[in-house]
Amino acid sequence: MNSNPIYNYVERLSELLRVDSRQAGALHGLQPVQLEALHYLSICNRYSDTPMAVTEYLGQTKGTVSQTLKVLERKSLLTKQPDENDKRLSHLKITAKGKQLLQQLVPTPMFNKACESLDKKDQAKIVSALNQLLATLLKTNGMKSFGVCHSCRFNSRKENGDYFCDLLKQPLSVDETELICREHEGEIA
Amino acid sequence: MNSNPIYNYVERLSELLRVDSRQAGALHGLQPVQLEALHYLSICNRYSDTPMAVTEYLGQTKGTVSQTLKVLERKSLLTKQPDENDKRLSHLKITAKGKQLLQQLVPTPMFNKACESLDKKDQAKIVSALNQLLATLLKTNGMKSFGVCHSCRFNSRKENGDYFCDLLKQPLSVDETELICREHEGEIA
DNA sequence: AATAAATAGTATCGACTCGATACAATATGA
DNA sequence: TCATATTGTATCGAGTCGATACTATTTATT
Predict the structure, then answer these.
(1) Angstroms from A159 CA to nearest CA on chain B
(2) Are B117 and A125 a contacting pair at CB < 8 A?
(3) Which end of chain B is more exposed for a tag (fewer CB within 10 A), N or C?
């Protein structure tokens, strides 16, 4: 029978993660996809915390994501704040309760156990391989990369050393360059 | 914020695969989990093609899997055959129609595109990393490995070179040693 | 040999997902 | 200014998935 080992591994990992995530969230009445959305919001920057950005990240439809976010808001894990300039936009901010929950549930117990038993060198190898696989998947299928500003071609530094986004024409703090952005684009090959 | 890069990558890959799989199966009225079950049945051996084995592989409950299999059977993608010795068991055999569908949908288009653009050397690196990650996850959490007989500690060879399973006390064909088995156990460390 | 316990599988129920469709509000552009 | 695009919400239906309850068969214990 046909066999693409990369696909087989990712499919299996994917299912295991889903089951683990379901179990972890069950105690708090959260579904895997809800945890993922919350997790994304904890690692994205202030230009990427809207429902549409979550939609693009998760690859679902905006209607579906709207429901997911409604649940998270009802559980007081995030709050919606209107944008000052564009009245169509909402910014989704994680609450203290949301952060605490993530700290507890993400990564899941299964993953924590496994990662602890891997030495630094092996971890680095795995990260590097996953990075390459994901980047290739996104690139060959014309999808957004959702990388951190640090690795974005729009990110530049001013004379005084401050970071600046050439696309959004906005200054960035050092911390912000470590967060993921929906507008991220890698260097041109 | 906390950040385990391995987890982040796997979570993201997992969601992308799920979305892609959903889209691929939608044309045929199949859900991601149904494709996964069918895929498993195409790469497992004759001792591992029962509903319970699928249940263990997917990590779900037997009730859930029973429904999944019912759908696949109704769509004539697999057939149920009673075991000759143990009347409680059913063996799930993929039909020609099922095989054809898998050929078409697994791996998904997204994955195929990406893998084609990776050279052999990078593919091997990724396979090796994924293999290590999955093995660690399964081992540290006491889960079954679902490996192929070829790498199983119960697999031995008789004087004439034939393969033999010491656990099930059954002879194996060469082809069978390339299929995954629910009883698989790696070498003792 | 009789009975208890374990194992494999199915059926049903309810909470939830997710795409599709329709809709309202705001922003952009000709 | 008016058409069009963008962001977001509401509702509906088919389907997932764990929980529970149940049957049938096998294995273990007395």
Answers:
(1) 29
(2) no
(3) C
Nearest nucleic acid nucleotide to A51, CA to C1' distance: D8
**B170 vs B40, which has greater pLDDT?**
B40
pLDDT digits (tens, 9 = 90+) for B16-25: 999 999 999 9
* Chain B residues closer than 8 Å to A6 by CB: 111, 115, 123, 126-127, 130
**Per residue of chain A (189 residues), what is the pLDDT tens digit?**
457 899 999 999 999 999 999 999 999 999 999 999 999 999 999 999 999 999 999 999 999 999 999 999 999 999 999 999 999 999 999 999 999 999 999 899 899 999 999 999 999 999 999 999 999 999 998 898 999 999 999 999 999 999 999 888 889 999 999 999 999 988 765
Q: State both tokens at A75.
A: 């559980």
Considering any atom of strand C, list protein residues whose CB lies within 7 Å: A 29, 31, 33-34, 60-61, 63-64, 67-68, 71, 85-88; B 18-19, 22, 26, 50-53, 55, 62-63, 66-67, 69-70, 80, 88-90
Cα–Cα distance for residue pair A17/A11, rounded to 1 Å: 10
Q: How far is the CA of B87 from the C1' of D21 (A)?
A: 22
In the complex, which nucleotide's C1' lies nearest to the CA atom of residue A26?
D18
Q: Would you identify the CATH topology of the domain A1-117?
A: Arc Repressor Mutant, subunit A (1.10.10)
The whole-model pTM stands at 0.94
Q: Which residues of A touch B5 (CB under 8 A)?
A: 127, 130
B87 touches strand D (CB under 7 A): yes
Residues 72-101, chain A, CB closer than 7 Å to nucleic strand D: 80, 88-90
**pLDDT digits 0-9 by tens, B116-173:** 999 999 999 999 999 999 999 999 988 999 999 989 999 999 889 999 998 888 899 9
CA distance A98 to chain B (A): 12
Domain ranges (residues) in chain A: 1-117, 120-189
DSSP string across chain A: ----HHHHHHHHHHHHHHHHHHHHHHTTT--HHHHHHHHHHHHB-TTS-SHHHHHHHHTS-HHHHHHHHHHHHHTTSEEEEE-SS-TT-EEEEE-HHHHHHHHHHSS-HHHHHHHHTS-HHHHHHHHHHHHHHHHHHHHHTT-----BGGG-TTEEE-TTS-EEETTTTEEE-TGGGGSB-TT------
